[in-house]
């Protein structure tokens, strides 16, 4: 069970997580099976187990903190909340497929240049937030899909889309996202989301989609 309350530590809230552990010397409370918060604790022995409260100062950026708090209290994962600033800036589009399944799509400002797999600067902040979320939850998986427009080099379309997806995957991995939570694949020009007859349409199609899904679903 988790709740947030004022800690007296300035403006930083704390997160209190109640649970059972085998011994005080090995206090680790795992959120969704991965993330540990072995910080300040108070508790008492209870037979072979220890009943304990783990108190963790919350130092995450507010959007990440709010999204994680929603998830750990049983609400649905909310990517609109996590990425609100990026959506408002027109950097990305975020769609809720169903429940805790989301897709984050690059926009005009973050679309790849023609025949390039170089990530645009505005997309790094998006990936940083997603990486922080995955590292906090543990039980989130990312499927990255690369795409091209119809006028990019047709003989290299599949390879180019693979490289676009791989570039995003490599960056997330560099931010400590576990490899077993990442996958990437290219789809060439097969799945356009806009007309290839206009410049803007082709820019939209030179994209990556990051499909985000909870591995356990809402509690």
From TrEMBL:
Cross-referenced Pfam families: OmpA
Gene Ontology cellular component annotations, sorted alphabetically: cell outer membrane
The keyword Transmembrane helix belongs to this UniProt entry's keyword annotation: yes
UniProt subcellular location: Cell outer membrane
Name of the protein this chain belongs to: OmpA-like domain-containing protein
Domain named OmpA-like: residues: 99-216
Transmembrane segments: 12-31
Keywords assigned by UniProt, alphabetized: Cell outer membrane, Membrane, Plasmid, Transmembrane, Transmembrane helix
InterPro entries: Bact_OuterMem_StrucFunc (IPR050330), OMP_bac (IPR006664), OmpA-like (IPR006665), OmpA-like_sf (IPR036737)
């Amino acid at each position: 069970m988790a709740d947030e309350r004022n800690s007296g530590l300035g403006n930083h809230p704390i997160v209190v997580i109640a649970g059972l552990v085998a011994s005080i010397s090995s206090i680790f409370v795992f959120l969704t099976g991965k993330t540990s918060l072995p910080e300040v604790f108070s508790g008492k022995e209870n037979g072979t187990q220890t009943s304990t409260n783990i108190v963790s100062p919350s130092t995450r950026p507010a959007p990440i903190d709010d999204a994680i708090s929603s998830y750990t209290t049983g609400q649905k994962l909310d990517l609109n909340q996590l990425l609100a600033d990026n959506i408002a800036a027109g950097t990305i589009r975020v769609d809720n497929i169903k429940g805790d399944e989301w897709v984050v799509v690059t926009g005009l400002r973050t679309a790849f240049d023609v025949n390039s797999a170089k990530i645009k600067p505005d997309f790094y902040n998006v990936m940083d937030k997603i990486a922080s979320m995955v590292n906090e939850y543990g039980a989130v998986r990312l499927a990255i899909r690369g795409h091209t427009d119809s006028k990019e080099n047709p003989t290299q379309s599949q390879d180019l889309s693979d490289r676009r997806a791989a570039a995003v995957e490599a960056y997330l991995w560099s931010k400590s996202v576990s490899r077993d939570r990442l996958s990437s694949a290219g789809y060439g020009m097969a799945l356009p989301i806009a007309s290839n007859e206009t410049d803007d349409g082709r820019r939209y199609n030179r994209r990556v989609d990051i499909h985000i899904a909870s591995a356990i679903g809402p509690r």
